[in-house]
Amino acid sequence: MARKFFVGGNWKCNGTAEEVKKIVNTLNEAQVPSQDVVEVVVSPPYVFLPLTKSILRPDFHVAAQNCWVKKGGAYTGEVSAEMLVNLDIPWVILGHSERRALLNESNEFVGDKVAYALAQGLKVIACVGETLEQREAGSTMDVVAAQTKAIADRVSNWSNVVIAYEPVWAIGTGKVASPAQAQEVHDELRKWLAKNVSADVAATTRIIYGGSVNGGNCKELGGQADVDGFLVGGASLKPEFIDIIKAAEVKKSA
Ligand SMILES: O=C(CO)COP(=O)(O)O
């Protein structure tokens, strides 16, 4: 089974209701490849999820940027997976490096969240990636493997998982990984899945790249054999997100 190109827009902690309406209007008017070619998911802050979902074109979907690790209850400030399911929010981003770094989310905690969210019926964009220090120390693959292992240890069905490889040094820095650097890690990650999970999971799980993706670099990155799409931050708030969605076409001609 071919891996369908996946383009996620992570709006992070940005926007007002007016800005959300403006971004969604731009997306709604865009001519993009069909759902058979590309799966598009945008991820607004929690408070804008219902608004976004209610006005977004039906061929695009929404994701939350996080959810609680277990069933809801006395967890002030948290939003549970059950609540997302209740509002028909199909996707959730988990383990983003900003949460790992700023909120001390450990590999195990992220793995627990992924398992719980999947068990509730959510689809998960699970983020992994090394810091600059770790890359320079030559430990990129050890770090990414440990992050992925904590998920693999807790998850048996991978059909609703997309892995986002997001090198921390490339996020919001304008310093994008070269296509070769991205391909190298995606290839190793796929080999890791083949060895530690199964050949089938390795062949079918989408591994998308995130970190300073923009309208100018998306085609070359997307043309790499093991890059199955993107998780886009800054550029997902701009009209160039549409060009990034269109990069899905590089796979058709590949
Ligand atoms: O963190 C990211 C997506 O989750 C990437 O952010 P930028 O595209 O702004 O570098």
Automatic annotation (TrEMBL):
GO annotation terms (biological process): gluconeogenesis; glycolytic process
**Cellular component terms per the entry's GO annotation:** cytoplasm
* Primary site of residence: cytoplasm
SUPFAM superfamilies attached to this UniProt entry: Triosephosphate isomerase (TIM)
Compartment(s):
Cytoplasm
Catalytic activity entry: D-glyceraldehyde 3-phosphate = dihydroxyacetone phosphate
Write out the pathway annotation from the protein's UniProt entry. Answer: Carbohydrate biosynthesis; gluconeogenesis; Carbohydrate degradation; glycolysis; D-glyceraldehyde 3-phosphate from glycerone phosphate: step 1/1
GO function terms (MF aspect): triose-phosphate isomerase activity
Q: Which CDD domains match?
A: TIM
**What are the EC numbers?**
5.3.1.1
> What keyword terms does UniProt attach to this protein?
Cytoplasm, Gluconeogenesis, Glycolysis, Isomerase
Give the family this protein belongs to, as stated in its UniProt record: Belongs to the triosephosphate isomerase family.
Under the subunit heading, UniProt states:
Homodimer.
Please give the NCBIfam families that the UniProt record associates with this protein: tim
For this entry, the protein name equals: Triosephosphate isomerase, cytosolic
